[in-house]
Amino acid sequence: MLEATNQGVWATFAQVDNAPFQNDIRKGPYNFNDPSCLSCSINDESTDPTQVVQMFADDPSADNVNKNMKILIQQANPTSVWQYYKLIDVQWPENPIDLSTLPVPALQPLPLDTPNTQTLMNPVLETFMRYEGTSCTSCHTIARVSPHQSTATNKTPPPDNASSYSFMFGYARAQKPR
């Protein structure tokens, strides 16, 4: 499926009691949602705290994976915390692009092939990304290398070098001299 590519496969998981689905708001208890707070805003980045609500359903094909994994985990360790986690969904490119064919250095945005699902986000880690078409790959194509990278001896701004879909490299800084 993913021959000659490094675009990756993206997945997101959640603790089952983190947040309700959009149509189950008044059930609970939840770690990031208090059903008794009738005046609290939902997924609102301008309020603190906010009520976290999972806006999009888990992929139905994840149900069997979650059920089977829970059985295996409980058989191995009936008290394991991992039995309370679930797979929400997995995303991958339908027609992956071999990134080694891009010119070096590759500039962002990296190519985004047609993903198998257009919408995928974690309800707690990405609470405010609650719109159709928002997904792992659609966001990570713009990940870039740190703007603090070397520009040799000239004073021009550094190029927007892509960082292979990881935002981590954008935070890199040179060590300060001691």
Order of helices and strands: EHEH
What's the helix count?
2
Q: Termini distance? A: 49 Å
Fraction of residues in β-strands: 5-15%
**Total strands:** 2
Overall pLDDT metric: 86
List keywords for this structure.
two-stranded antiparallel sheet; globular; 7% strand; 178 residues; little secondary structure
Describe it.
The protein is low in regular secondary structure and 178 residues long. The protein contains two helices and two strands. It has a two-stranded antiparallel ribbon with strand order 1-2. The chain starts with 9 loop residues before the first strand and ends in a 38-residue tail after the last helix.
In short:
The chain is mostly loops.
Set down the secondary structure blueprint.
Blueprint: E1 10-15, H1 61-76, E2 85-91, H2 136-140
Antiparallel strand pairs: 1-2
